[in-house]
Amino acid sequence: MADLNTLANLKRRAEVAQQTADRAQGAYDQLMAKLQQDFECASIEEAEKKLASLEQKNKKAEAAFEEAVEEFETKWATRL
Fold it and tell me: To 10 degrees, the CA torsion angle through 16, 22, 24, 27?
């Protein structure tokens, strides 16, 4: 009888594990579809490369903005 209980318990645990895996796969599939739709990236690696590129562009834009602000303040310091 213990063997039947053990097998039933193992079966339940396997079913729960499968359900958890199915939910995780569904969530992954949804996130990958959203990544493709929103950012046109087909993989996480592609998204990481795109993110690095955007971060670099943002850093350059911030530096250019700071430089423009400094030039403005220098030029107009007497009138501000």
Answer: -140
At which residue do the structure tokens 């339940």 appear? 12
CA pair distance 49, 1, nearest whole angstrom: 57
pLDDT at 10: 96
pTM value?
0.69
Q: What are phi and psi of 40, to 5 degrees?
A: 55, 45
- How much is the mean pLDDT over the chain? 95
The number of residues in the chain equals 80
Phi-psi region of 55 (alpha: psi -120 to 50; beta: other; left: phi over 0): alpha
Q: CA–CA separation, 1 vs 55, rounded Å?
A: 63
pLDDT cut 70: percent of the chain above it: 98
What is the C-alpha separation between 75 and 17, in angstroms, rounded? 67
